Sequence to fold (81 residues):
Amino acid sequence: MYSVVFASLWVVAATIVAMLPMRLQFPPGILLLISAPVLIVWLGYDYGWFLSVLAFAGFASMFRKPIQYYWRRWTGREVEE
Fold:
């Protein structure tokens, strides 16, 4: 039950951060990016792997650009800045 409450609060926080100007999005965005996998695993533990897969799909959709950026950076590929 608590996992759903925290996941819902995470969604509200992500929506608020998305409305901020780009220069103010970075610090809270990193916190949201780090906390998302913890919430996804917690949801999967409480409600099964299928809900966890759905939550991961939503997370990947929201953070596709930062994930692509850091993946290219970590693998040594060219990064567009």
